[in-house]
Amino acid sequence: MTEKRDFQANHADTLDRDLGRLSTLEQATAYVSRPMAGKGVALVFMVLAALLASIAFGGSDNTMVIVIASAFGAYMALNIGANDVANNMGPAVGANALTMGGAIAIAAIFESAGAMLAGGDVVGTIAKGIVAPEAMSDVNVFIWAMMAALLSSALWVNLATWIGAPVSTTHSVVGGVMGAGIAAAGFGAVAWPTMGKIAASWVISPLLGGIIAAAFLWFIKSRIVYQEDKIAAARRWVPVLVGIMAGSFSAYLAMKGLKKVVDIDFTTALAIGGALGVVFWAVMIPVVKRQSKGLENRNKSLKVLFGVPLIVSAALLSFAHGANDVANAVGPLAAIVEASRTGTFGDGFGIPLWVMLIGAFGISFGLFLFGPKLIRIVGSQITKLNPMRAYCVALSAAITVIVASWLGLPVSSTHIAVGAVFGVGFFREWDFERRLKRARMSMPERPSLPREERRRRKLVRRSHFLTIAAAWVITVPAAAVLSAIVFLGIQAMVG
């Protein structure tokens, strides 16, 4: 009888181990199949984009060229969704104001709306004057150059997403156009003053974004967080901050999002922003007063007052990004379509609706399938964010673009947003050290922390800082080299 019980126990243990192995295998299979399923859906989308192009240009002599270019454009749009959109949604997710699913849904809706309603600006002479059109020998050379630029920029953004570095897709396209232009017509074909301005934006964008975000965080801490009656201070200043946000986004969207409806100059956009800012400030006074009733006088209560404004700002950032950056990303595809249709490539041209559809839907699919990785990095792995810090990041992004437009500086929305996250993190480090020093002066007997422990308590991850900074610096040259190689490869195959 004892032997039978031992046999049953051993048999049960063996069965448990076998079931455990099966369970582990199922989990591993699910883990492996998720990225495979994502790649499968992405491939299906690229095929559908190619089919859409074949329907739109079924009787054209260059149908196959446009079909291939459309697949490349869809690939680029997927990579924009996977990488670029994380900068808008990452802070809100990191601050726990939005779930990952909610962020993806809001971003997909507002990115697509921005692209379709306010996108499609006229694409100037070969990607905004980076390469002189007269340098291209004929229309076929131009088409191959734009194909190389489109594919190389998409490959570079894909690589950056894989290593976990948020990069500028616009800069990737610029690098791709430059590299293909050099391979096609030599170094003299490139407008180097324009490239110099773009290189300057590598420093200007994140620095300006970081300084403005840090300044707003200092304001919130000094006027609200460090006050004795935090709730009373919040009732006074939160409506002001929401008014500034509303005014900033109104001015930004008036400049960037209404171009297709009416041409608005900078002064008029500022006037619109100022008027709407005052309106929202007045509206938010009773709203914040009602929200703050019954809240305890502590920092955790303040997060409630910043939650909804943060979600709204993230949605508006996505709309503005869709309106502005999608056109830049699908610009080479639009250039190929126009050159194939007309046989010329010197004048400006609009982006066709079906090309904008590829861009808008591709961004949504890319965000849904591959975006969570970069959202987590931007939102929580660079530095810890709460609604107040994330609000400073979103506000900084809008104000920095307006200031840059006023100064005539080319800036990257990616660099601004990520620079703002770093600015908030480095300000927190400075503020922590300042308060620690003040506490040590008031209590001299308190032992100081060892240097190793102080280094361990740094509030910004240096590894992410170095990785992202390096990726920013090499984006244009890396995309350029890739593009030149792809162009020479295409030329060798067709020539």
Automatic annotation (TrEMBL):
Which PANTHER family does the entry link to?
PHOSPHATE TRANSPORTER
Against Pfam families, the record matches this protein to: PHO4
The record gives the membrane topology as: Multi-pass membrane protein
State what protein this is by name. Answer: Phosphate transporter
Family affiliation: Belongs to the inorganic phosphate transporter (PiT) (TC 2.A.20) family.
Q: Name one GO biological process term.
A: phosphate ion transmembrane transport
Single GO molecular function: phosphate transmembrane transporter activity
* Transmembrane parts of this sequence: 40-57, 63-81, 93-110, 141-161, 173-192, 198-220, 232-254, 266-284, 304-323, 351-370, 390-409, 415-432, 465-490
Where is the protein situated, by its record's location annotation? Membrane
Q: What keywords does the record list, in alphabetical order?
A: Membrane, Phosphate transport, Transmembrane, Transmembrane helix, Transport
Give the CC-aspect GO terms: membrane
